[in-house]
Amino acid sequence: MKDVFARLASDFLSAIVFLFIYLVTDNVILATSVAIAGAIAQVIYARIRGRQLNFMTYASLALVVVLGAVTLFTNDPRFMLAKPSIAHFAIGIIMLKQGWMLRYVAPIVAETVPEYVTAAGYLWAALMFVIGVGMIAVASTGDLKLWAFYIFVVAGGAKILAFAVQHVALRLIVTSRLRAVARA
């Protein structure tokens, strides 16, 4: 679980850096430039450390560079604010693959109720799309404080809540199924 949070922080580091610098300085050029440089430095650092980088890392870098360039060209921070929503859409598309979630649950869950795990995977994909649309709607307002609230509290809270509900629901379903098998 620690690795998952570290990876998420790494993926959204450029957005966090951008937001922090922009809120402190109110300078979109500076904030965007530092976010782009930070994203490039992250990839270079990972390569120097010998880490294998996946497609999503390079896609994230490309998004930061492209959206950052558009932000610099237009002097409009909304393009940088759209980056996390695009990432959520990409993750949502990946989550549409049937059974993707089976490798992330305990073996007893995957063996006992694979159909529920597959359904949960589709619900996670839907959640990613809803969060992505919400991020674009909030980013389009240009209100950085509202966007920060949305991305950290609303989107983060929705994921934590979904994880908790999924955990409890799958636990209850597995327990019920195992009791039914034991009785039979």
TrEMBL record:
InterPro entries: YciB
Origin superkingdom: Bacteria
Annotated PANTHER family: INNER MEMBRANE-SPANNING PROTEIN YCIB, INTRACELLULAR SEPTATION PROTEIN A-RELATED
Organism placement in taxonomy: Bacteria, Pseudomonadati, Pseudomonadota, Alphaproteobacteria, Hyphomicrobiales
Organism encoding this protein: Bradyrhizobium centrolobii
Cellular component GO terms, alphabetical: plasma membrane
Protein name, entry field: Intracellular septation protein
Membrane-spanning intervals of the chain: 29-48, 55-74, 86-105, 117-141, 147-174
Keyword Transmembrane helix: yes
Pfam families: IspA
Alphabetized UniProt keyword annotations: Cell membrane, Membrane, Transmembrane, Transmembrane helix
